[in-house]
Each structure stands twice: as structure tokens, then as C-alpha cells.
Amino acid sequence: MSDRKQRQGHQRQSSSSLYERYKDALRRGHVAALRGRLEPAIDAYSEAASIATDRALPHAAIGGILVRMGRIPEALEAYDRALALAARDETALRGRAEALRSLGRRVEAADTLDRLAELLDGVGKLPDATDAARRALELAESKERRRYVESLAVRLRALDGDEAAKRALAQVLRFLEPPVAPPPEDVVEAAQVEQPEPEPEPEPEPAPDGALLAAAAEAALDAGDVAAAREGLLAAAAAYRQTGRPYAAIDACYLALAVAPADVDLHMMLAELYLESGWRAPAVDKLLLLGRLAELDEDPATRDRLCVIVRDRLPDEPRLVALCA
Q: Are 45 and 60 in contact (CB under 8 A)?
């Protein structure tokens, strides 16, 4: 064999070995992240980044871990490193927008969501693009953003039978369409005279107070009752979700993960909250990680639960469809 062929063979073996080390470091990071071992997760992802210096994924993953740790400025730096390597990385763009929003930098967050919306629109993910554009408009109103969101809504209407499009359209119409003005007082008075008194309807049950539930959970945690704290934070997250406060619900889940890092219910709720907030990529990442953990732990029940979400909410995501095949 010639020297040249030998060198080529050694190079291929070296590349293969590096890739296997990279994959192993990523796997260790994923498992540590799901089990709440955040510092080891950062160490593993940093190792992956040092092996594959051209890959954005490890940096975006580090950003997600730093967000969970409340280290938002550092998370923003990690997302920026990822975007320097891959300017069109969906996970990094979503993470950067959320980090900027958490820091009160609403205009910059909206600009990042604009980039994300254009990217998603360009690859045919119209519902996700609409969600991103709507959130940008909510953060920083402008005529250009409003016109873009309105144009996306028109295109969504044409997607008959698409469940994701229906959900995105419903959300955007709630934001775009003003409430109906109340009728004049004289019309109301006439209606009251002419029409019989309606039967009184039973008052709806008041929505649970997420803040009170969270406070009770924190008190339980201070008292050392981890089980009660976990249950209380789950209940708080559900209450916030019911009353239309997804960010508060996500925060409650993150607090609960600090005491129950491997809790499947928490990870499932987070995946659903991500989807409801329009964060498709983090939701997909979360479900993929859950699927891998279910395989490692030989847990078919968890796999079945995540596959229900895939069937109902993400039937067009090939990686998850393959996981649930």
C-alpha cells in the first residue's frame, strides 16, 4: 500500500474516532440534562464542543442548561456562539430570543424572532413561523411586523385540515382581532325590557391560583417535604397554564425539576408548554431526549406517552415519527 493510501486510511479512522467521541459526549450531556445533573451536562456538552469545533449543537445545548440554572447572560453568550457557527440554527434562535426577553431586552428579542420566523417560513413551517412572528409583534409593535403577521394568517387559512395551522391561526387571530365593542346603553335597556329574564347559570368554578400554589410548594420545600413541593409546583404549573400564563408555568416546571430532575410528568408538561408557546424545536428536543432516556431505562410507558404527543401534535416530525414507529 502506498504512503498516500495509508495516510488517507489513518485520516478516515481518526475522523471516525472523533465523531464517535463527539456522539458519546453529546449522549452523556443529554442524559445528565434529563436527570437534572446540570453541571455534568455542561461539562459533557463543552467536551463535545471542543471535539467538533464547527458544530453549533453543543453550544445551543449549553445555552439551554444555563437558562435552567438562571444564568441568563451566560446562556445568551452560548446561543451567540452557536449562531456564529450556524446562523440559521432554530434552537439557538429560539433560545436567544427567550434569553433576551428574560433580560428585558424586548426589541432585540423581537428582532431575533423576526429572523426565526423568516427562517421557518422559508423552509415551509408556516404554523411555527406564524407563532414566532406573532410573539415578535407582541414584544415590539411595528407596522411591518403587523403586516407580516397578517399575511401569514391569510396563508394559514388556506391550509385546510392542518391541525397545527388551525392552532396557530386561532392564536394569531386572538391577538390581531380586537374585541367586539359593547352595544350602546339604550340598546341594552331595550333588550332588557323586551326579552324575558334568562335562567341564571351556575357560576363557573374559579381557576386555581398558581401563585398561591407555588408559594405553598416553596413553603413545603423549606420544610423539607420534597414530595409535597413537587406536587405543589406541578399543580402551580397546571394552574398557570389554565389561566394563559405559559411562561409562569414553565418557570414552575423548572423549579420542580430542581427537586425532581428525572420526573417524567414534568418533562412531558414542559414539552407541551413549549408546543403551546410556539417553541417547536425545544419541544422536539425534549421529546427526543425523553425517548432516549426511555430506551436507556427500558421504560415503554414513557415512550407510549410521548408518542401520543407526537401523534397529536407533531405527526410531521420525521425523527419523532421514527422513534414511535
A: no
Kindly report whether the global pTM for this prediction surpasses the value 0.70: no
Q: Please check whether residue 244 is in contact with residue 238, taking contact to mean a CB–CB distance below 8 angstroms.
A: no
Longest dimension (CA), the chain: 102
SS3 165: helix
18-61 tens-digit pLDDT: 888 998 998 888 888 877 788 999 999 999 999 999 999 999 98
Equal CATH topology for 1-104 and 106-178: yes
Query: What whole-number distance in Å separates Cα of residue 252 and Cα of residue 270?
Result: 10
Boundaries of every domain in the chain: 1-104, 106-178, 208-261, 263-325
* Distance of alpha carbon 92 from alpha carbon 98, whole angstroms: 10
Class for domain 106-178, per CATH?
mainly alpha
Superfamily for domain range 1-104: Tetratricopeptide repeat domain (1.25.40.10)
What b-and-e string marks burial along 271-295, b requiring 16 or more CB atoms within 10 Å of the CB? bbbbbbbbbbbbbbbbbbbbbebbe
